[in-house]
Amino acid sequence: MSLLDKLERKLGFLAFNNLTLYLIIGQVAMFGLSSLSPNRIGVLSSLVFTWDRFLSGEFWRIATFMLIPGQSHWIWLVFAWMVFYMMGTFLESHWGAFRYNLFVLTAAVGALLAGLVAPYYPVSNFYIGLSITFGFAYLNPNYELRIYFILPVKVKWIAVFIAAVTLARFFQVGLFEKALIAGSLINFPIFFGRDIISSLRSKKKLRSLKVEKEKFAAEPFHTCTLCGATDISHPEREFRYNREGEAVCSDCVKPVTDEDT
Q: What distance in Å separates the CA atoms of residue 139 and residue 195, rounded to the nearest whole number?
């Protein structure tokens, strides 16, 4: 029994079903409140997590930072929430509520710990969302999303593009965001690392078997001891074996037979 199985048996009752839906409802509510409030920045800043605020007694921030919506036009936010709901519910149905909760929690804890690098910097939930995209793309790579609701693109290529952009950004930003990227995406290797390594080993083994098979196919099965012809160089010939186990092709058998006669 794996560690995840043991944790699920002991702590499975703590899991939230439909976690993705709750997160979206929270983000929609915060977007609505901040849009209606004359002090939009003030509403959102009350949700942001920083270690200095948390240690000063504002403990709610450890959860509310997950409810901060993206800084985009509402149309794109609706599209993002739709995609997030689809991907999150897929992961939950694939793993079960406990493992999906743990997947999100691992990314959140990683992001919060990254905040220790700069206690006064706000911790973003952006890369936590990306980890869910990567998880969905790994499990369901050929699923098609329609970019701008028109162009169909397989989600694996979207994930590859996002990963490339994120990697390029990783080498351009400062230490805090480097830690934030690494911490928020740590859940992916934890949950998929063993599977990826096993898959790479299997592919390597299959390649070596293929090479051996091709090498075996390229070697002749029959070789005439008299003229050196093989079943590959002369496939039209027949090969016979004498009592000593030596092969003789059909062209060499005739002269030998006539001579003996």
A: 11
